[in-house]
Structure formats: structure tokens, C-alpha cells
């Protein structure tokens, strides 16, 4: 486990810190910024696979991570398109799970894209605008929570507007993260928090996390599961790994997506690693979890790591999204 290098923190990153609208970052977080900084040259070299065959706001290559169909905008036929269900924290594979009547909500996912991990945040803001909203991005890794400068994330993101079922607009933000961050730390939990600026005591009303792990040179996502999406209340939270996860490979070191080349030959195809865990400790928003059971299960268009069952007893840290909202 390496410590972030303070010396590589660029002047640009420092300047941008002054512009962020989030709370002042602690020194440890500032030191961590360099680790998460984007390489503009690398970013420009990436080409987005923008094909969205069913025009639901999720590109084709994103849908297998969510388990949704790339040919059907409303996979579970409940009247809400897949991207809207991601943003509004209902489960896109359950006709009985529909968005709650709320004014602001955010959901999160990720996929492999070229040689990068592309992060996805789906925002439901009613007015389809970022103005007058509070946004917070960050991650937990190596026992620390790091905030990303909001303006850097936005400057390096694509923003797509998609119609929602109620006539409002969703915002789909996408930005790249280097897979080496995941491989370096072994497990990284990313978060997005979103709120309006009506009440300074409650800057964020919704939060979502997505967890990525490194396994044999492969980036694995703790895939969204029905148990991980929260009911909409005054606040909404979505945790990709809240006691159960389906660990799906999304990017191999050999390049290509998780269902393509580069998956180690000893991983089982047609299966996925189903993992159960229990929280064994917490510190602020950081939760330490221990894997209690893990097995390959069949019936998935994915691959199950040869290390799946041997992860029992290991620990990893996630973010409690509840700790990110409500002031
Ligand atoms: Ca789509
Ligand atoms: Ca639906």
C-alpha cells in the first residue's frame, strides 16, 4: 500500500481547490488529490462508445453492468427507463421497484472503456440543471476518504441530458478513472452526493456509491443488486455493496471489457462471484466489512474469479452513503 505523493500535486489542482463548492478539504484529502488527478492527454485519447441502441441514456456497454437490456429502454416494463431508475435509485430489473416522489436523487455505476474505468453518475434534478445544486465527488481507499475537486470532475466529464418520465431531464455525467488506482489500493469505493442549496443545514439529500476491486489484474465492480437500492424517503442512498454483491469484471489488464479478451483463463465463464459480507467496524463514513461467504453462481453473462471463494475472511472498506447526506 503506497502513500499518495504530495510532490506530484500540480499547481492547477491546487488552484482548482479554491473553486470547489464543497467543504474545505482536510490536509490528508489535499495530499490525496494528486492520486486521483486526471491526465488530460490520456483523457483526450479516450473514445467514448456512445452507441445507445435503445436511447435510454445508458450506452450499450453500460447496460450489462446493470443487468439491463441494451435493446429495451425500460427493461422491467414499469414505465421508467433504465437510466432514470439508476438516477432515482429504484431497481431497473424489478417491476415493483419504482422511483419515489422526490425532487433530487443520484445513482452511480461504472464500466470499462478502452483502457480506462468510466464512472457514471445519473442525476435527477427536476430542472435538469447543475446550477443551484450541491455536488460532491470522492472516494475511499486505503483507509481514507478523499474529495475530488468538483470543477475538475465536471471539466473532465461528458454531460448528457435525457428526458425523464415526468417531462424533466436527467443528467448523465461520465468521467474516466485510471484502473491503476484500483489496482494500487485493491479496493476503492467511489461516491457522489447531490443536493439543492435551499437549506444550508442539509447540503446533500441523496448519495450513491460504487465499489471497484482489483483481482488478478482485472477491475471488478460490485454490481448493483436489488438489495442495494434504497427506498426514497426524505433522503435517498444507494450503496453498491451493502452486505451482498455480484462481482462482475469490467476491465482486464489486457484491455477490453470484462466480457472480452484478457480475462484470466482460470475464471469461469457464464458465472459471477456472489459475495456476502458483514460490517465489522466503522470510522466516520468508512465501514470495514468482512467477507462471510463467496461462491461462483451460474446464470450470468460474466466471469467468476478463481479467487472468489478464497476471499472469505478478507476485509474491505466501503462508504456509508448515509454519512454523506443530511449535513
Ligand atoms: Ca441504452
Ligand atoms: Ca424500468
The termini sit apart by 32 Å
Rg, rounded, reads 18 Å
Mean pLDDT: 81
SSE pattern: HHHHHEEEEHEEHEEEEEEEE
Hetero compounds = calcium ion
What's the level 1 CATH class of the domain at 26-244? Mainly Beta
Question: What spatial form do the alpha-carbon principal axes imply?
Answer: globular
Number of beta-strand segments: 14
Largest sheet: 10 strands, mixed
CATH topology of the domain at 26-244, by name, is Immunoglobulin-like
Q: Report the helical percentage.
A: 10-25%
Question: Strand content of the residues, in percent?
Answer: 35-45%
Tally of DSSP helical segments = 7
Instruction: Provide the CATH superfamily of the domain at 26-244.
Output: Immunoglobulins
| Uncertain spans | 1-48
CATH architecture of the domain at 26-244: Sandwich
Strand-pairing-aware structural class: mainly beta
Give the helix/strand layout.
Blueprint: H1 11-17, H2 27-36, H3 40-45, H4 63-66, H5 82-87, E1 105-113, E2 116-124, E3 133-141, E4 144-148, H6 150-155, E5 158-163, E6 169-177, H7 179-185, E7 187-196, E8 206-215, E9 218-223, E10 236-238, E11 244-252, E12 268-283, E13 286-304, E14 315-319
Parallel strand pairs: 8-10
Antiparallel strand pairs: 1-2, 2-6, 3-4, 3-7, 5-6, 7-8, 8-9, 9-11, 11-12, 12-13, 13-14
Bound molecules: calcium ion (CA) (2 copies).
Features of the shown structure:
mainly beta; Immunoglobulin-like; 7 helices; four-stranded antiparallel beta sheet; ten-stranded mixed beta sheet; single chain; disordered N terminus; 327 residues; binds calcium ion
